[in-house]
Each structure stands twice: as structure tokens, then as C-alpha cells.
């Protein structure tokens, strides 16, 4: 009888899943102590907090993305392209949907993949709360493809405005959701509009951009301290953004949002960036205990509450802390959960006791493009946070991405990537123009 190594299947190669696959590849895959398989519905990874920069063309996902198959070959795990749609926990098998090409032709039929241990790291999507018209008329920024679709619409509108000699004509963009995505996207849009003059679109300037940022709650950045929200709001207003707080959208039409007070906010481009939920198909799997946002409830070791061989990390995981609050859906949470599950899988294979997950909030940062960065950091000795702004905040914000790069590439390659980014900034256009 052959002694097969245990098979660990990670579904979702995002902020949490890709870091976990890399680390398990090095610690187990390399010595064939376990067979590590990463499954993602995309061929390449882009760190999700960068999606608003993909949407504005500030970065090019084709150049900055990590191609899973190449990464897997270097880091001792396997990669399979596929979209997870069903789970049979009794037979320890997951189902991947039929794989189709862009024209809808079948590449592969539905497939089944077996596992000994499963890690679900499939992230989250925006929650439109079934608001009428939103699915048909709004852009979302949940994936690379959606961000690229937005970028193409943006370029088309820049081109249209550049040809329009009437200076009164403006490009109007309405964004629902005053969280980090909406706030960062608003600032980034002013930044790229300001750069167009360098590339021959000199009649489409930031002065012809009008953004409405719509937030249902009493203030933008509701999850962050008030001081950060006030500072971000001041900066947005200075740029020209109309910040509409306490404004609830009840419907989206082809070119406008309609609010609860029946006010009409017209826009050429409409974005839905409010609310977070785990993908709806999780409900259909039927075995998990879920929150109302479809997040899977877990125990203190990040094992699903119904099956100890299934771990859950990142945005799709509902971890309740001692004070009753949920761990927020952030990149730092996904990173910390990946580290804990790495430890727990290693311990499981050695029959050692598991580690309890504790979330450390290191603070929050909001990047308003080149205009400002604001945020709070948690003190090491006290649980109080302190406010930071400007260059230090910007440095800390960039460090978050570097930490993710280090976790998936190692220090030497992260340094090489940093150098090559500096060089490419000189030889490449500063924004994606196609
Ligand atoms: C524009 C924007 C800005 C943000 N800024 C910040 C920030 O500044 N700081 C911060 O901490 N957080 C930020 N966030 C939140 C942060 O990106 C997420 O919390 C984090 O990415 C969650 O990591 P994850 O691994 O759970 O999911 P993700 O990183 O979203 O990865 C999920 C992966 O699962 C794959 N997947 C999904 N469904 C399936 C399926 N059915 N089958 C196979 N694969 C699947 C996806 O393709 C993806 O690769 C931001 C989010 C957005 C959208």
C-alpha cells in the first residue's frame, strides 16, 4: 500500500489564500509532506486593495498581477483554474463548475476535487441589498475583470469629453458607499484626470470631473475613527467631490440614482461600492452556520463550526471575538488568519494542539491618492490608537502591500520588484491608456 501525503486544498488565491498556499508550499509541499492545491477562478492574482487603482488605470493588472501557475511552480504547490460551486463534506469532495471561454464555449466539464483538509478563502463581494436597478446599471469593484471594465468605460468617457468643446460639459461619476473603496476611488479619479494632459487629452481636466460620493450612514468611513473620516472628507471636498452623507439610494436607473427622498443624482458612470457579503452560493452548500452576510461561522481555531477538516479565512470567515464583535473584513485580518491556519494545519499533521486565533488590530489607513493619506495606528503598549497623516501614513500604507508581496515572493524578490517598479515608472506611461 502506498502512503499518500495528505491533500490540502485551498480555494481562493487572494490576500489570505495565496499567502497560505505559498507558506504551506515551502513548509510541506517542498518535502512532499503534503500535497498543496490552490484553486482560483482567475489565472492571476492582484491584491484587492489595489483594485481602485486598476479601475482608474493607475496600475496595469496585466503587468502587476501574479500568475498563479508560474508562482505555484516556484513555491512548491499546485494550481488549478476553476470556480468552486459545491461541497460534499461527507465524501470530502468539492465541485468546480464547467469552465467556459470568453465566448461561452466549454473548455472543461464540471469537475470534482477531493481533499483531506479544505481551506475556504473565497473573499467577499459588494452587497447591493437587492436595490432595484443596481445589478443592471452599476459597476462593482469586486474583481480584476470588474475593475478593468470600469477602466474601459472611464477611458471612453475621457475621450468623449476631450472632443466636446463645451466647457460646461462634465464627466459625472456617482459612487455609492463612503467606505475605504469609495473614498480612495474618488481621490484616485481626480489624480488620473489631472494626468490626462500629459497624454494629449488636455481638454479633459480634473475641473471637468464631478463626483458624488453617497453614504447612507451619518458620515463617510463609518468603520474608522471620526477624526480620520473628517480629515478624509475635508480633502475630498477640497478636490471637488460632493460628499452626500445620510443619503440612502432606493433605486438605480440607466443614468441616475434615486434616493429615499426621491432626489435624483444623475451620472455618466455609476459605481456600487457599499456593503460586504460572502458570495451567495455559500448558502446553497447548506451545511455551514452563516451570518446574515453569508460569512461562515468558525471556532477559535478557524475551523468551520460544523466540520473540523474545513478551515475558513479572510472576508468569508465570521470570527467572533471575546467582546462579541466580528473581525473586520480587511487585508490584515486575512493575513493574520492565513498565519494561524498555517500553524494549525502543521500542528494537525503532527497531532499537536492547535493555536487559538486572536486578531490584532494594527490600525487603518486610507489613501487619498497623491493628495493625502490618513489613518490610525495602534500603540504597542496601550490599546489606544494614534492619528497619522501625510508622508508617514503614506509609507505605512505602502508597507502593507510590501508585506503581502514579501509573504508571497520573499524579501529578495520584493526588493527586486520595488526597484523594477521605480524603473518602469520612468519608461512607462504613468497610467494605463488602453
Ligand atoms: C478597492 C478596495 C480597497 C481596499 N482597501 C483595503 C485597505 O486599504 N486595507 C485593508 O486592510 N483592506 C482593504 N480592502 C479589503 C481587502 O481587500 C480584503 O479584506 C481582502 O482582500 C480579503 O482577503 P481574502 O483572501 O479574504 O479575499 P480576496 O483577497 O478577495 O481573495 C478571494 C479570492 O478568491 C477567489 N474566488 C472567489 N470566489 C471563488 C470561487 N467560487 N472559486 C474559486 N475562487 C474564488 C477570487 O478570485 C480571489 O482570488 C479593500 C478592498 C477593496 C475592494
From TrEMBL:
User: Which InterPro entries would you find in this protein's record?
Assistant: FAD/NAD-bd_sf, FAD/NAD-binding_dom, NDH-2
Which residue ranges does the record assign to the FAD/NAD(P)-binding domain?
7-338
Q: Which SUPFAM superfamilies match?
A: FAD/NAD(P)-binding domain
Q: Which residues form a coiled coil?
A: none
Q: Which UniProt keywords apply?
A: FAD, Flavoprotein, NAD, Oxidoreductase
Pfam families, per database record: Pyr_redox_2
Task: Please give the family membership noted in the entry.
Answer: Belongs to the NADH dehydrogenase family.
Q: What is this protein called?
A: NADH dehydrogenase
Amino acid at each position: 500500500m502506498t502512503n499518500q501525503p495528505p491533500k490540502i486544498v485551498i480555494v481562493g488565491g487572494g490576500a489570505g489564500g495565496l499567502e497560505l498556499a505559498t507558506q504551506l508550499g515551502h513548509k510541506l509541499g517542498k518535502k512532499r509532506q503534503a500535497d498543496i492545491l490552490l484553486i482560483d477562478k482567475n489565472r492571476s492574482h492582484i491584491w484587492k486593495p489595489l483594485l481602485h487603482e486598476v479601475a482608474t488605470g493607475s496600475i496595469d493588472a496585466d503587468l502587476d498581477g501574479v500568475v498563479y501557475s508560474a508562482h505555484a511552480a516556484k513555491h512548491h504547490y499546485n494550481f488549478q483554474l476553476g470556480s468552486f460551486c459545491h461541497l460534499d463534506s461527507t465524501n470530502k469532495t468539492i465541485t468546480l463548475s464547467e469552465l467556459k471561454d470568453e465566448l461561452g464555449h466549454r473548455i472543461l466539464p464540471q469537475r470534482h476535487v477531493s481533499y483531506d483538509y479544505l481551506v475556504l478563502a473565497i473573499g467577499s463581494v459588494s452587497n447591493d441589498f437587492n436595490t432595484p436597478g443596481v445589478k443592471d446599471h452599476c459597476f462593482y469593484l469586486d474583481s480584476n475583470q470588474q475593475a478593468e471594465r470600469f477602466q474601459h468605460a472611464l477611458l471612453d468617457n475621457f475621450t468623449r469629453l476631450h472632443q466636446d468643446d463645451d466647457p460646461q460639459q462634465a464627466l459625472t461619476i456617482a459612487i455609492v458607499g463612503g467606505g475605504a473603496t469609495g473614498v480612495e476611488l474618488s481621490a484616485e479619479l481626480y489624480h488620473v484626470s489631472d494626468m490626462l494632459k500629459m497624454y494629449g487629452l488636455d481638454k479633459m481636466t480634473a475641473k471637468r470631473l464631478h463626483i458624488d460620493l453617497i453614504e447612507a450612514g451619518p458620515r463617510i468611513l463609518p468603520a474608522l475613527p471620526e477624526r480620520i473620516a473628517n480629515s478624509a472628507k475635508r480633502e475630498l471636498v477640497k478636490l471637488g467631490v460632493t460628499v452626500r452623507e445620510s443619503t440612502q439610494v432606493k433605486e438605480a436607473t440607466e443614468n441616475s440614482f434615486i434616493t429615499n427622498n426621491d432626489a435624483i443624482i444623475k451620472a455618466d458612470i455609476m459605481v456600487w461600492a457599499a456593503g460586504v457579503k460572502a458570495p451567495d452560493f455559500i448558502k446553497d452548500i447548506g451545511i455551514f452556520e452563516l451570518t446574515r452576510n453569508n460569512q461562515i461561522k468558525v471556532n477559535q481555531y478557524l475551523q468551520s463550526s460544523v466540520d473540523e477538516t474545513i478551515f475558513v479565512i479572510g472576508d468569508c470567515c465570521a470570527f467572533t471575538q471575546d467582546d462579541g464583535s466580528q473581525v473586520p473584513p480587511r487585508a490584515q485580518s486575512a493575513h493574520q488568519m492565513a498565519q494561524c491556519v498555517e500553524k494549525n494545519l502543521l500542528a494537525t499533521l503532527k497531532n499537536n494542539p492547535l493555536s487559538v486565533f486572536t486578531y490584532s488590530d494594527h490600525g487603518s489607513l486610507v489613501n487619498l491618492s497623491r493628495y493625502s493619506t490618513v489613518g490610525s495606528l495602534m500603540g504597542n503598549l496601550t490599546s489606544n490608537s494614534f492619528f497619522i497623516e501625510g508622508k508617514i501614513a503614506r509609507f505605512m500604507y505602502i508597507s502593507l502591500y510590501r508585506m503581502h508581496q514579501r509573504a508571497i515572493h520573499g524579501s529578495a524578490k520584493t526588493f527586486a520588484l520595488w526597484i523594477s517598479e521605480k524603473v518602469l515608472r520612468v519608461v512607462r506611461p504613468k497610467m494605463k491608456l488602453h
